[in-house]
Amino acid sequence: MSNFIQTFKNIFKIEDLKKRILYTLLLVFIYRFGTHVVLPGVNASLIKGSTIAQQGQGGLLGMINMFAGGAFSNASILALGIMPYISASIIIQLLTVVIPSFQRMQKEGESGRRRLNQITRYLTIVVTVAQAQGYITYLATQLPRQAIYPFTSAGSIPFIFRFSTTILLTAGTLFVMWLGEKITDKGIGNGISLIIMVGIVARLPVALLSEFGSRMSVAGGGIFALIIEIILLIGVILFTILLIQGTRKIPVQYAKRVVGNRQYGGVRQYLPLKVNAAGVMPIIFAQAIMFLPITIAGFANYESGGWFVTAFSNFNGFWYNLTFALLIIVFTYFYTAITFNPQQIADELKKNNGFIPGIKPGKKTAEYIDTIMSRITLPGSIFLAIIAILPAIVSNFGITSQFAQFYGGTSLLILVGVVMDTLQQIESHLLMRHYDGFMKKGKLKGRSVYGGI
């Protein structure tokens, strides 16, 4: 404990690090303030009792609301949050796999990365405008008629409201994107991921109060049951850290070179392969697929769907979660395959006179790396699936749905991943100034929550 307190003091002894942390906190405060600024023309007093506030607690809308930090259910100017940027980034990542020109830009270093970022920004505007139309329609159908000014008539939305709201929602998303980039450049941590994490953490106090109230009821189990739940949550967090930090190290040897009287190379290093290289993306892909039956049921007669629609509309049911877990395993292999390129790694090793002991450089090295990656992806995908369905499992034991979200799924993975990445960056600043880090032995290893976001 004393070591942690001393490390915390050392952080504020480093002027540059202190400025970065304070700058990050300022921008985070601005973002949180913006999530409570209601769109012009919407009556804020009529939002709380509407279906928007209720639907923002679970399902697809609950996930969108989580990423938006509660702004979605508040009808805020930042209602769409960073989701359009995430969608655009995923599209660009997939395009770099199938379109040669995008592949070339990816390999061009810093200049190529800047061009891809610029394309992502333009695509974000397109995605935001499209999503804004759906959100405006959603507001008009879910809020009372008198909640929107000018008042909506039956089946129609005033043009002035649609136009102005589209502009504001697009500007709001671009503003959040700008905040994230500024945090990355001048603050601490990955700005986009940090903004998402802040939105998740903002819901924790409400979830804790809800769970406390539930446990203090007559049949709730009392304070002892709440303590057991918190201990279990800490255990799940530790398990998630193991999954995020888990690596398989492949030894790499570099050939010796003698230049003049000096010898270069000849050292052994390691190629770290992540057990969970896909991050949180398989869960997001799987969730999108799992919401299809519910969407189809909304356009058809619910009763005609029978057992199938009933089973896949129950988020805590056995068949829903079994299918969800299997899809996560499949998408983990899929996303790892499109983002991890063994041949490129083998070519880089060969270019730098590196080789894996006992394996021929070139094609054999690529095949060896691909085999190892396939083997470690299986346990990684299974562990990821277990974490994803944990909220549903604990919900069946009486834990409230709001608090259950922190036991796994997207919330926990993002939360743990971003915290580890931010602490790793802070530790790097400490070690550069010859201060002790957070750990006496070894050092923290961070990772990006999304591959490239």
Describe what you observe in this structure:
- The protein has 453 residues and is mainly α.
- It folds into 2 domains: 16-202, Orthogonal Bundle (Preprotein translocase SecY subunit); 207-407, SecY subunit domain (Preprotein translocase SecY subunit, Orthogonal Bundle).
- Helix content is 65%, strand content 5%.
- The strands form 2 sheets. The protein has a 3-stranded antiparallel sheet with strand order 4-1-5. A two-stranded antiparallel ribbon has the order 2-3.
- Strand 2 and strand 3 form a beta hairpin.
- Residues 449-453 have low confidence and may be disordered.
C-alpha Rg, in Å?
24 Å
Q: Which ranges are low-confidence, i.e. pLDDT below 50, for 5 or more consecutive residues? A: 449-453
Mean pLDDT: 80
CATH class of the largest domain equals Mainly Alpha
Q: What is the number of helices? A: 19
Number of separate domains: 2
The counted number of beta strands is 5
What is the SS-derived class? mainly alpha
Helix content: 55-70%
Distance between the termini: 34 Å
Oligomeric grouping of the chains: single chain
CATH architecture verdict of the largest domain: Orthogonal Bundle
CATH-defined superfamily of the largest domain: SecY subunit domain
Sketch the topology as an H/E string, one letter per element.
Answer: HHHHHHHHHHHEEEEHHHHHEHHH
